Each structure stands twice: as structure tokens, then as C-alpha cells.
């Protein structure tokens, strides 16, 4: 499979389909939205081609039973066990499940806690649906990003209903340890909170182990809905597909009720793709994960050598690097400067929390040559002004 030496000309498809590659002008290297630049797993393309020879009519409403069993098997490898197909609710993708869980597990005016910076739909859903967001900023320590448990306790009021967790964490790349998750579970249980745990990045980990928070005991399992899907792991974002998993079937029933008529039905091609990926995509995934780890390590040594003034902690998982330009002369204009002068398209940190202006998120799921080119462009502009 070709992972190395991809070129912008190859990646800019002739139909203009790719948001990543067609959003910015052609002289900009796009390192933003979380798509991989790598070719799709051949087992997925083949399964989709075969499926198209057959029926693509309405699927069974519960979804493909074989897929449900594969997802259950996959979760059990992470320690989330005792699941039956009734504990799974297929969704059109993960973001609709984030929205449904907030609507199902809280009411307007309720307070919802989440660690920031965080994947922006976590914050958007709260603002759009009149929940009150209580931010628990991750603390930057010499050892990495840590949850501020003291501040967490101070956020609690009688209106707090829900904890939204992102693990592995977008954008910091933290993979939370067992002791951290146990403390979070204890916190949620003591304050009778519901927990929405978005674990979409669970298969893209370089250090540590993914532990579903719902696997820590039956009490926390009863208060948690775990969300996942195929798109980050297998690079199938445009196909969609997601699942809400809970030992508490009432949570899933409440999510189904709030999405009724809006959630659509499981998409046959996304189910086909996801099942093929779980059944036959493991070698592809291993190769891609090893390449991504190489990219992560490349960034780490590049930053130390050429951009020490930019804050960076190596991510333990995801293919996202979270870069702090706030101490550079660009300050809050970092996103604009990188776009206009360096010609590198990154995600502006402020979407992950209002206090993160001057931070940028870089997607490193690309060929090493393109990653290097982007980092060199960033360095040239940064050094010119220092
Ligand atoms: C944590 C997290 N959840 C959900 C999504 C999006 O999921 P989907 O495309 O399946 O809606 C992303 C995409 O980057 C993500 O990082």
C-alpha cells in the first residue's frame, strides 16, 4: 500500500469531493479536518463493490446482525463485556449520537461538564440546545495533559447532569489511564451523573491501553453510553456509520426517542464497510498505525529541533498534534498567519474551547514528505519573525 510519497496532485480528486483537499486554495497544504490521506483498505472497497452487485434496499431496522456481533467482539477486546445486540444502537455517524445523548440525558438549563480543549461538536451541541457548558480545562504538566480533579469537584451544582468524555482525547491525543478513569467514574457515581464517552479513536493508540470507562464496573456501566464508529480507524468518514453502546437499555431507548424521524436508518454501504474492516482490515490497520506512529515521532523530534518555542506534547493516540503558538509573536493570529504566510491549513484552536486562541491542531495522517513540507513551511514563517 502506498503511504509514503503521496502528492497533492494525487490527493486532490478530480470531482472535488474531498473537503480536506478542496476547501483551501491549491497552494495551501491542508493538514486540518480529521481524514487520512491514505488509500482505503482494499477489503472495504471489495466488500462495497460486492454489495453493490446485490441489494441496497432498506436494511433490517436493527442493522446487520453480523456487524453487531463483530462490534461486540471488538469491544470485548477492550474489556467492555457482557454486551448483546440489544445493547447496541446503530447511528448514521458518531456526531448524531453525541447530539442524541445530550438531548436524552439532560434538559435545557442543565449543566454538562467536559474537559477542554475538546472536539468542537461537544461544545456546539450544548450551546445550540441551551445546556450550560461547564469547562474542566486539562492541566498541562511536564508529564503531559492531566485532568484537574479538584476543579472538577468545584464545578458540581444541583443542576449538573452529564459528563462528556472524549477518550482517546481529540485534540490533545491523551489516552486516559485506568486510575484517571476510575476517579472519573467515582466522580460521576457520587454525583449521580450520566456519562457520554466518545471512544471513536480507540484503535489509534501508540502508548497506553484503551480502557472504556463503562468497563470499570456494573454501576458505571449503567450510567454510561459509549460511542464509536469506523471512520477514524478505517478512513471512511464520508460513508458514515456509528454506534451507541450501553448496558442500560433505557439510555438507548431515550436516544432513539429523541432522534425519532431524524436519525434515518443504518446505511447499507457503511455497515458493509465496517463489517469488512473488522473482519479483514486488521493488517491494513497495523500498517497504517505503525506509519502514523512514525509520523508522530517525526513531529516530536522536528518540534524539539526546529520549533522549541511552540508548545507541544506528543500525543499517545489519534493522528492529531496540538500546537501552542500563543507564546510566539503570532499569538492569537497563528491560524491566519499559517494559512496566509506559511500556506498550511490547520484547525484553529478556538473551536476546541474559547481559551485556545493561538493554538492549532495539525492532522498528521499523511505521507511523511507532505508532513515534513508542512512543518518546514511553518518553521520558515516562525523563524522569520522570531
Ligand atoms: C471524538 C470524535 N467524535 C466524533 C467524530 C466524528 O464522527 P462522525 O464523522 O462519525 O460523525 C470525530 C471526528 O473527528 C471525533 O474526533
Tell me what you see in this structure.
By secondary structure, the protein is of the alpha/beta class. The chain has 2 domains: 138 residues, Aspartate Aminotransferase, domain 1, CATH 3.90.1150.10; 225 residues, Aspartate Aminotransferase, domain 2 (3-Layer(aba) Sandwich), CATH 3.40.640. The protein is built from 15 helices and 14 strands. Strands 2-10-9-8-7-3-4 form a 7-stranded mixed β-sheet, with helices on both faces. A 3-stranded antiparallel β-sheet has the order 11-14-13, with no helix packed on it. β5 and β6 form a beta hairpin. The chain is globular. It binds pyridoxal-5'-phosphate. The site of pyridoxal-5'-phosphate has 13 residues, from α5.
Instruction: Work out the count of structural domains.
Output: 2
Question: What is the gyration radius calculated from CA atoms?
Answer: 21 Å
Q: Report the portion of residues in β strands.
A: 15-25%
Query: Would you tell me the structural class of the helices and strands?
Result: alpha/beta
- Tally of extended strands? 14
Give the overall form.
Answer: globular
Helix content: 40-55%
Could you name the ranges where pLDDT drops below 50 across 5 or more consecutive residues?
none
> What composes the largest sheet?
7 strands, mixed
**Order of strands across the biggest sheet?**
2-10-9-8-7-3-4
CATH architecture heading of the largest domain: 3-Layer(aba) Sandwich
Mean pLDDT: 96
Task: Supply the CATH class of the largest domain.
Answer: Alpha Beta
Q: Give me the number of helical elements.
A: 15
Taking the alpha carbons of the first and last residues, their distance comes to 40 Å
Hetero ligands:
pyridoxal-5'-phosphate
Query: If you consult CATH, what is the topology of the largest domain?
Result: Aspartate Aminotransferase, domain 2
N-to-C SSE string, H for helix and E for strand: HHEHHEHEHEEEHEHEHEHEHHHEHEEEH
CATH superfamily of the largest domain: Type I PLP-dependent aspartate aminotransferase-like (Major domain)
Amino acid at each position: 500500500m502506498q503511504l509514503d510519497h503521496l502528492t497533492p496532485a494525487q490527493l486532490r480528486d478530480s470531482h472535488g469531493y474531498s473537503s480536506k483537499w478542496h476547501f483551501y486554495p491549491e497552494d495551501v497544504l491542508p493538514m486540518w479536518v480529521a481524514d487520512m490521506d491514505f488509500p482505503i483498505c482494499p477489503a472495504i472497497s471489495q466488500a462495497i463493490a460486492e454489495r453493490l452487485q446485490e441489494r441496497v434496499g432498506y436494511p433490517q431496522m436493527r442493522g446487520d446482525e453480523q456487524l453487531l456481533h463483530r462490534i461486540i467482539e471488538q469491544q470485548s477486546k477492550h474489556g467492555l463485556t457482557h454486551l448483546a445486540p440489544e445493547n447496541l444502537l446503530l447511528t448514521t455517524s458518531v456526531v448524531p449520537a453525541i447530539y442524541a445523548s445530550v438531548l436524552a440525558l439532560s434538559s435545557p438549563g442543565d449543566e454538562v461538564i467536559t474537559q477542554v480543549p475538546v472536539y468542537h461538536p461537544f461544545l456546539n451541541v450544548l450551546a445550540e440546545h441551551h445546556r450550560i457548558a461547564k469547562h474542566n480545562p486539562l492541566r498541562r504538566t511536564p508529564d503531559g495533559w492531566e485532568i484537574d480533579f479538584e476543579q472538577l469537584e468545584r464545578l458540581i451544582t444541583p443542576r449538573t447532569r452529564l459528563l462528556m468524555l472524549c477518550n482517546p482525547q481529540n485534540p490533545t491525543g491523551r489516552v486516559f489511564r485506568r486510575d484517571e478513569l476510575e476517579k472519573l467514574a467515582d466522580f460521576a457515581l457520587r454525583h449521580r451523573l450520566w456519562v457520554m464517552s466518545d471512544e471513536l479513536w480507540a484503535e489509534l493508540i501508540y502508548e497506553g491501553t484503551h480502557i472504556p470507562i463503562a468497563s470499570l464496573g456494573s454501576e458505571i456501566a449503567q450510567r454510561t453510553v459509549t460511542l464509536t464508529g469506523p471512520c477514524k480507524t478505517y478512513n471512511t468518514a464520508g460513508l458514515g456509520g456509528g454506534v451507541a453502546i450501553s448496558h442500560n437499555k433505557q439510555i438507548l431507548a431515550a436516544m432513539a426517542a429523541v432522534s425519532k424521524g431524524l436519525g434515518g436508518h443504518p446505511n447499507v454501504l457503511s455497515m458493509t464497510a465496517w463489517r469488512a474492516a473488522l473482519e479483514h482490515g486488521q493488517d491494513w490497520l497495523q500498517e497504517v498505525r505503525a506509519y502514523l506512529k512514525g509520523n508522530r515521532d517525526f513531529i516530536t523530534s522536528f518540534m524539539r529541533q526546529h520549533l522549541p518555542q511552540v508548545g507541544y506534547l506528543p500525543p499517545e493516540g489519534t493522528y492529531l498534534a496540538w500546537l501552542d503558538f500563543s507564546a510566539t509573536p503570532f499569538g492569537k493570529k497563528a491560524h491566519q498567519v499559517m494559512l496566509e504566510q506559511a500556506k498550511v491549513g490547520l484547525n484553529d484552536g478556538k473551536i476546541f474551547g474559547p481559551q485556545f486562541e493561538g493554538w492549532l491542531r495539525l492532522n498528521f495522517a499523511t505521507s511523511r514528505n507532505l508532513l515534513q513540507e508542512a512543518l518546514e513551511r511553518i518553521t520558515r514563517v516562525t523563524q522569520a519573525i522570531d
